[in-house]
Design a protein that fits this description.
Elements lengths: L10 E3 L4 H7 L7 E2 L14 H17 L5 E12 L2 E3 L5 H11 L3 E13 L4 E12 L4 H10 L19 E5 L2 H4 L4 H13 L15
Parallel strand pairs: 1-2, 1-3
Antiparallel strand pairs: 3-4, 3-5, 5-6, 6-7
Helix pairs in contact: 3-4
Length: 210
């Protein structure tokens, strides 16, 4: 059973990521997935965490426009190495370049989280950063990972939870953030929406099932 179990409100995750789906199940037994159609523009000139939060909010708002009542969670993750922002690779050559940049270096994974409640449009924005150290990776190891690791739907071209684990010397910060969903940050942000109706006026009750 998830931490909150089944709640009385409509809970929506605005993400197509299977990793986020898996981790969101730690919090809720009942939630829906509605993928946002927001273009992940990484060239807005913002600081990394601000950019991730901005994109997460756009995703949550995009889905919020489609519903009348509920709690929507948006998320966005980016990888930064030597002040260079890495999104998702477009092909094998791009993935190879990204993994080469990460080899032997410390990089940062930023995730922005945005929660929008309808119909009040109350909003909460938060985020997390984790520092990840890669060992030096040999070229054949990069090629092998591209062959088996499905790097194309992941920022920075790797997933900490899969075969890329063999590249990682250490992490500092939330492990789940590197998967794209810092569970404790999400929990802390969404808890007031689930447990407390004071922000929403008369006629609302706690979403938490008694």
């Amino acid at each position: 059973m998830a931490f909150f179990g089944t709640v009385a409100r409509r809970i929506i995750l605005a993400s197509a990521s299977p990793r986020r789906h898996q981790l969101f199940r730690l919090l809720f037994d009942n939630f829906e997935i509605i993928e946002s159609q927001v273009n992940e523009n990484l060239s807005l000139g913002m600081a990394p965490l601000q950019l991730a939060q901005h994109l997460a909010l756009l995703k949550a708002q995009d889905v919020a426009e489609q519903i009348d009542d509920g709690i929507i969670v948006g998320a966005d993750s980016i990888v930064v190495v030597e002040n260079k922002i890495l999104g998702k690779p477009i092909d094998a050559a791009d993935a190879r370049k990204m993994l080469g940049l990460l080899s032997g270096k410390v990089h940062e994974v930023y995730t922005g989280i945005a929660i929008v409640e309808k119909p009040s449009n109350a909003t909460k924005i938060t985020g997390a950063v984790t520092h990840v150290t890669f060992r030096n990776i040999e070229n054949w190891e990069i090629d092998r990972y591209i062959e088996i690791g499905n790097p194309f739907d992941k920022a920075g071209a790797y997933g900490i939870q899969n075969e890329a684990a063999v590249f990682i010397d250490k992490i500092s910060g939330c492990y789940y953030n590197v998967m794209g969903f810092p569970v404790n940050e999400v929990y802390q942000a969404i808890k007031p929406f689930v447990m407390d109706n004071r922000a929403f006026g008369d006629g609302y009750r706690s979403a938490f099932s008694e």
